[in-house]
Amino acid sequence: MLNFDNQAAGERRLLQLNELEEFRTQAYKNAKIYKEKTKKWHGQKLARREFVKGQKVLLYNSRLKFFPGKLKSRWSGPFTIIKDSPYGHVKLMDDKTQRTFTVNGHRLKHYLGDSLDEQRVNYNLS
């Protein structure tokens, strides 16, 4: 009942180790494919925001969440872009105080207030 043939048992064990190695490599490949697909899907959902000099933007205020008040806006501004860096930091100028400061580009979004005022149409109903 027991296999006392060391040569056959050794060959069988080598085959099992090779199968296990192939299974592990296939699992790595499948995980890599899954990660690539997930990254591609997530990247499609992100909107690329490109800022140019002179453009108006809003700044996200992350400290506001510590204060009570549901109706306070977390976006402050508008600010004017003075300089845009390819590395993600943007130099802003406050329109009211003429103060300049540098922020991370991920905390900004485009300000559409001026363009909405231009598109507004008044109708006189008389």
Task: Describe, in plain words, how this protein is organized in 3D.
The chain contains 2 helices and 5 strands. It has a 5-stranded antiparallel β-sheet with strand order 4-3-2-1-5, with no helix packed on it. The protein is α+β, with helices and mostly antiparallel strands. A hairpin with a 4-residue loop joins strand 2 and strand 3. The longest helix has 40 residues.
What percentage of amino acids are in beta strands? 15-25%
Number of helices: 2
Based on CA atoms alone, the radius of gyration comes out at 30 Å
- Give the topology string: H per helix, E per strand: HEEEEEH
Rounded to the nearest angstrom, the distance between the terminal CA atoms is 106 Å
Residues in helices, as a percent range = 25-40%
- Given the C-alpha coordinates, what overall shape results? elongated
Structural class: alpha+beta
The main β sheet shows up as:
5 strands, antiparallel
Q: Which parts are unreliable, with pLDDT below 50 for 5 consecutive residues or more? A: none
Give the strand order, joined by hyphens, for the main sheet.
4-3-2-1-5
Mean pLDDT: 84
Total count of strands: 5
